[in-house]
# Entry
Amino acid sequence: MTEKIEEISDNIELVNSDIEKDYKLNLRKETQHFIIHYTEFDKSCIDKVSDILENSYNRITSTFNQQLEEKLIIEIHPDHNQLHIALGFPNAPGWVRGGLGIGKIVIASPLNPPPGSEFHNVLNTAVHELVHIMVNKINKNTPRWLNEGIACYEAKDNNENWIVKTVKNGLANDIVPTFKVLDTGDDFETFFKYDGYQYSYTIVESIIKLFGYDKLCNLIKAPNSFVDIFGITEDELHNKWIDYIKMNYSLN
# Structure
């Protein structure tokens, strides 16, 4: 066991030393809709980053009827401390994979994912942040559960088992939160603590499956207009969500 720990520790030190040695966003790749800044460290995965962004662009912009007005800057930071600084949160928790900077998307390196994440989680985080941009173009003041739920659902950047396990536990212990509890404003750490990413994914999934994308887009525009949009109250929509996850995230 000691040998394995030492081997893992050596590998981490090697990765960190490579990052420090090469750390400059001195490489650039330009695509139809994006300008990606990255380091030598990410040279081998840059095509995967650009491909997933371009391959997702038409689907996302069509779904939300929004477009980028100019090419969007993407920064890939293999150094987690530099990632946090670029996001404006130098003391951000270690699990953070990316976010929106000023006029840009900032993500970790898929080749050096933060604790709890893997290559494809980080890769899809770029899509997650692109979805946030499109939702914010419609309405900057959406509740956190709605904005995060849409980004998580469209990007599929979280592991399905993590979502299923959380929802099953919530149902079994009667601790599934209300929409209001999950509206934590700018406080993403509390949202994480409340399992907001997992629950909000399933809320948005239920809205899309039960009511369709048009109703979802109407909710983005008017997040408190439950009766006008769905013909039911917020509490009744919450109950429909509970019924949906009971049926589709079964305890059996």
Observations:
- The longest strand covers residues 72-77.
- The chain has eleven helices and five strands.
- Residues 1-19 have pLDDT under 50 and may be disordered.
- The CA atoms of residues 116 and 223 lie 32 Å apart.
